[in-house]
Amino acid sequence: MTIKIGLVSVSDRASNGIYQDLGIPALQQWLKQALATPFSTVTRLIADEQPLIEGCSLVLTTGGTGPAPRDVTPDATLAVAEREMPGFGEQMRQISLHFVPTAILSRQVGVIRKQALILNLPGQPKAIQETLQGLKDSAGATLVSGIFSAVPYCLDLIGAPYIETVESVVKAFRPKSAQRPSA
Fold first, then answer.
1. Among residues 14, 7, 99, 21, which one has the least CA distance to residue 48?
2. pTM over 0.70, yes/no
3. Can you name the CATH fold of 3-178?
């Protein structure tokens, strides 16, 4: 089974061609490395507005999460949400605080809408990877878990397709009772 993943980059300037969007390519590259399950993506580069992507099991947005008046990604996400998953936003900020004190200004959220998980990620490629994958020491041991380790099990719980990760990139956590034999 192929999982459908929506990738949304929210930026007034990139959508107007003022600079090149780096968020979607960074997300696509990371997913190619991290997912063992076949997937397809639906991508959108949009201005800071409130669109709705339907039919995706997982929607990852990048950008538009700060306190500026035009940063409305979390507002749009919460407007379509059925349930908020606050742990995702908390962990994203925790990871970013290892690098910048302004991480506390981020309004990143994670929500559930029907059988889709929607996550607002940072806008910079390096921060996207750190947020998804977590922080490791020089020997490769995990210092801080990335949010993606919880994504596959969350998708299981909401009835979305079962996905597997490439453990050398990010190890998905599932209780033993929820694990399936690898395909």
1. 14
2. yes
3. Molybdenum Cofactor Biosythetic Enzyme; Chain A (3.40.980)
